Amino acid sequence: MEKSKVYLVSTDDRAEGTRRCVNFAPLPDYSGKTVFVKPNFNTADEPPGSSHMDTVEALFEAIRAKGPAKLILGERSGPAMAAEVFRIKGIGKLCSKYGAELINFEELPPEGWVVFEHPDFHWPEGTLKAPRAFLDADAVITTCCLKTHGFGGVFSNSLKLSVGVVPKDFKLLHNTPDMRKMIAEINLMYSPQLVVVDAVEVFTDGGPADGLRKRVNLMLAGNDRVALDAVGLAILINAGSNNDIMNTPIFRQEQMARAVELGIGVPSADMIEIVTDDEESEKAAAVIREVLKKHA
User: Fold this and answer.
1) Is residue 109 exposed (0-12), middle (13-18) or buried (19+ Cβ within 10 Å)?
2) Which of 152, 218, 233, 158 minimizes the C-alpha distance to 193?
3) Which CATH code fits 4-295?
4) Exposed e or buried b per residue across 28-37, where buried means at least 16 C-beta atoms within 10 angstroms of its C-beta
5) DSSP state of 158
6) Fewer Cβ close by (within 10 Å): the C or N end of the chain?
7) Is 194 exposed, middle or buried (0-12, 13-18, 19+ CB in 10 A)?
8) 278, 269 in Cβ contact below 8 A?
9) Where are the domains of the chain?
10) Residue 132, Cβ density class (10 Å: 0-12 exposed, 13-18 middle, ≥19 buried)
């Protein structure tokens, strides 16, 4: 197995950081293609509670430059209603500016969903649903915020972001000891072409909407969600986080272990290569590499 590259950028400017992330993994020509962008709009709270609009707009700019026939942004929220989150954050206006279709997953009719089955899922009857438009897109690009998760997920990053593509049913996911395994299983339904992680400011405790904030001024990019989450956990450990983060080896976190079982990403820390583009980023990466090695 080849090593998975995680690109690390040291920056306090999300737009600049997103552009550098896209430069790391250049987007292909999207002529005639449909590109779907999935952000983190669980609520309208300030980052890391939700995706910063600078990040989303920088992604739109980069994608539009590649000439897609169709650009879509889709999401559901929770506990907030997506329509209200979209209004507060100005999502409709941004989508109009870039000619993007906006899909509220909470308003999809039954035929707008596709059933995904797997014999080994912890989900009831081994089935999941995801929006048809999301699964049918030629390319999926996601962006998430690095943070702890105070309602059983332990941490939220690229794997946890996928919860936003399944129907809103908090009792189903949150009232089970298999929650973290179920989070990982959602990710088997699709493979993102690129994931951009906002770790400019993180929650080191609490979350997902609000928590103990710490500014670390980093952004990550890649397409291996396990590798990205491993590096994200190393960032949280280095920042000083809660007991669930600090006292559990990275690859023994249930989200991570289940994702590895399913072949979603790399099986170990030594299969991750952190790549940088300037001296400041390399200094930060050197620290994170050591944390990752020590706590894997």
Assistant:
1) exposed
2) 158
3) 3.40.50.11440
4) eebeebbbbb
5) T
6) N
7) buried
8) no
9) 4-295
10) middle
| Cα separation, 174 vs 116, whole angstroms | 20
Tell me how many degrees the CA angle 112-259-85 measures, rounded to the nearest 5: 45
Amino acid at 180: R
Cα 192 to chain centroid distance, Å, stands at: 10
- Closest C-alpha to 173, from 164, 245, 189, 293: 164
CA count, 13 A, side-chain hemisphere, 83: 3
Q: Tokens standing for 285?
A: 């990466």
Spatial distance between the Cα atoms of 16 and 101, rounded to a whole number of angstroms: 25
The reported pTM is 0.97
The two tokens of residue 199 are: 């770790």
